[in-house]
Amino acid sequence: MSEMIPVHTDQAPGAIGPYSQAVSVAGWVFCSGQIPLDPATGELVEGDIGAQTDQVLKNLSAVLEAAGSSLAGVVKTTVFLKDMADFPKMNEVYARHFGDHRPARAAVAVRTLPKDVSVEIEAIARIS
Asked: What percentage of the chain has pLDDT greater than the value 90?
């Protein structure tokens, strides 16, 4: 059985509970949900859903890189939205970050998210 290896980077917000930013196992990385926190300040990013989604994907990218992967290695994401009305703008920013790469994805509306943010995204990726 493959060992589960915790992944950590200072380029993304640290875990605020008993979990890892990500774990790698058997050539895969499983990323915990990222929210729009600025890793340098620990503060929430100001702005609309577009600005928040941009920061979330920057954070996710940093965690993936620390694990030896990238957004190009992502095979599945789950997007959690506070309001499904934000889907079009989130989707626009998401598409810009992923380019022509199209991993499988689920997007769901939830009642609340940590720190009352508007978006959280988790991912599963192959390690390069």
From this structure: 95
Q: Is the pLDDT of residue 43 over 90?
A: yes
The C-alpha atoms of residue 28 and residue 96 are separated, in whole angstroms, by 24
Q: Find residue 74's DSSP bridge partners.
A: 125
pLDDT of residue 15: 87
Q: What predicted TM-score, i.e. pTM, was given to this entire model?
A: 0.96
CA–CA dist 126, 128 (Å, integer): 6
The Cα diameter of the chain in Å comes to 44
Give per-residue pLDDT as tens, 49-59.
999 999 999 99
Please report how the helices 87-98 and 49-66 are oriented relative to each other, as an axis angle in degrees rounded to 10: 40
Classified by CATH at the fold level, domain 5-126 comes out as: 60s Ribosomal Protein L30; Chain: A; (3.30.1330)
Taking the CA of residue 19 as centre, how many other CA atoms within 13 Å lie in the half-sphere pointing to its CB?
11
Domain-wise residue ranges, the chain: 5-126
